[in-house]
Design brief:
Shape: globular
Helix content: 10-25%
Largest sheet: 5 strands, mixed
Low-confidence stretches: none
Protein name: UDP-glucose 4-epimerase
Strand content: 25-35%
CATH topology: Hypothetical Protein Aq_1857, Chain: A
Oligomer: single chain
Organism: Solirubrum puertoriconensis
Number of helices: 4
InterPro entries: DUF779 (IPR008497)
Distance between the termini: 31 Å
CATH architecture: Sandwich
Length: 136
């Protein structure tokens, strides 16, 4: 069996921003709630600062950061591969990158049928926290 298809990826530009943030804040995590305005953008927090639960889904790890999404939002996005990117501009959220004059955003594409048959497993937030090496 081949390696599973990742549900979430990250661009080189976003990785560079993550590196800057990690140097200042230590280990990081991402969460995308799916609310209005900037709630639909991925938000970056110090690892463990945003408390995840069964209402959240762990989608994977990007550049050393766990990525979670609200379960309700995941229902809309479960057929797409997400790519975390960064762009100039100031978001209206509590995400760590905002003071840098940039904001994270999501680019997406639909999985192929073959990719959907071999996706990275997901875990709800509480299941994830019981896994070895989980940060929370």
């Amino acid at each position: 069996m081949s390696n599973p298809t990742p549900r979430v990826l990250v661009t080189a530009a976003a990785e560079a921003t993550i590196d800057v943030l990690r140097d200042e804040h230590g280990p990081l995590m991402f969460h995308q709630s799916g609310g209005c305005c900037d709630g639909s953008s991925p938000m970056c927090f110090p690892a463990g600062e945003f408390r995840v639960s069964t209402n959240d889904v762990w989608l994977g790890n990007i550049h050393g950061c766990d990525f979670f999404m609200s379960a309700a939002q995941f229902e809309y996005w479960k057929h797409t591969q997400l790519t975390v990117d960064v762009t100039k501009g100031r978001g209206a959220s509590f995400s760590l990158e905002i003071p840098l004059g940039v904001r994270f955003l999501i680019r997406s594409r639909m999985f192929t049928k073959e990719e959907e048959e071999n996706l990275t497993p997901i875990y709800d937030g509480e299941e994830y926290l019981t896994r070895p090496n989980a940060v929370g």
